[in-house]
Amino acid sequence: MRRILRPVVFGLVVLVLLAIPVVAILARSYFLSPTAQPAKAQPIAFTHPFHVNTLGLDCTFCHRTASTQASAGVPALEQCMFCHRVVPTTNKPNLERLVQAFESNTPIQWNRVHQMPDHVKFVHSMHINAGFDCATCHGQVQQMATVEQFRDLRMGDCIDCHRQNNARTDCAVCHY
Amino acid sequence: MSPRWGMVIDLDRCTGCQACVVACQAENNIPINTEAVYLQNRAIEWIRVERYWDGEYPNIKARYIPVPCMHCSNAPCEPVCPVYATYHTPEGINMQVYNRCIGTRYCAVNCHWHVRFFNFWQPKWPESLQNQLNPNVTVRSRGVMEKCTFCIQRINHAEQNARLDGNRPLRDGEVNTACAQACPTRAIVFGDLDDPESQVAQIANTTTRGYKVLAELGTDPAVLYLKKIDPEAPAHGGAESA
């Protein structure tokens, strides 16, 4: 009995040892995929809640190309300055930084929140014009002090929504 | 009704200038082919111009034939892929899904036209060309196959615009591939073969010079060639001007 048991136990141990790197690699690719990235602090603490709730701005007031182009567009500093030219900056370090950056012609290096791989082509205009709300994918940004990813945004998530809405699920719609 | 994309290449107009090759390389983020790469037969050219010598010196002529992917309706490259990384779109384009490809290269082996290319290295561009990459085209990483896509980024873009513009069908001429756009003699014509009004369909339906490369294999290529007119040939049934 023991003669059989030994090689079996040995084999199991070897299998478990071999499985550890495989599981580690799979876990890594799962947890480091586009979703589940920790929310990053931005170089200027821009508050969506204030601009949306208090000032009542629409998403497309700043993200101007959302309904016409593939990219929704992160506004250039110049666009911030359309309003902030007249907003007093005293005792507001974030605003001081903004004006200073604008005057010294140095763009703000915003941290990207929604990281799509290079082989995925998401087109904002098609989704907005199909009647989807920004919040469908981005969540309630007007309640996020720091913007974080709301949806899974991996391929299964995209495909589920495409199937529910009878959108095309041909590979070449998004991958090219 | 989805279109059926196709191409007509008039060899009588082709001068072998390679403008199509350059345009394709620029449009589709194709890595730079150095001499060393050519010597290893690993150059990536989604469209290439093949040159043949016709006749004996001094009565010798250069013949050129641009070869993109034929986008066969019955493509030999598709069934051999173990991971379904290459497939046929409903619009008749043979597509490579880069994120699915695991680099077995079976498709390249099974392609009779040698128009599938493998990325043996991570593509690199000099610093001066970094900002010249086309953002609408994926940069293929090492270990995946790539091939002519009939400039699907342009097709998708035009289709999206047409949908936003009241969901109308695409008009002829709204989509053009980079090679057809760059061709100075307009030897390459691209368009929807199912639209009888399109230029490409009219040429394909009326020409008497048309042939398909390796048509005997029965793969039904979407690229139609028009054979060169030989002015010295005796004027019999085969010679005509169009």
Describe the structure.
Chain A has 3 domains: 1-32; 47-73 and 113-176, no CATH class; 75-109, no CATH class. Chain A contains 9 helices and no strands. Chain A is mainly α. Chain A has helices spanning 2-31, 48-54, 59-62, 77-84, 93-103, 124-129, 134-138, 155-164, 171-174. Chain B has a single domain, classed as 2-Layer Sandwich (Alpha-Beta Plaits). Chain B contains 6 helices and 10 strands, in the order βααββββαββααβαββ. A 4-stranded mixed beta sheet of chain B has the order 8-1-10-9. A two-stranded antiparallel ribbon of chain B has the order 2-3. A two-stranded antiparallel sheet of chain B has the order 4-5. The model of chain B has no long low-confidence stretch (mean pLDDT 92). Chain A binds chain B through residues 68, 70, 117-119, 121, 123, 125-126, 129, 170-173, 175-176, and chain B through 87, 89-90, 93, 95, 97-100, 136-139, 149, 152-153, 156, 160, 163-164.
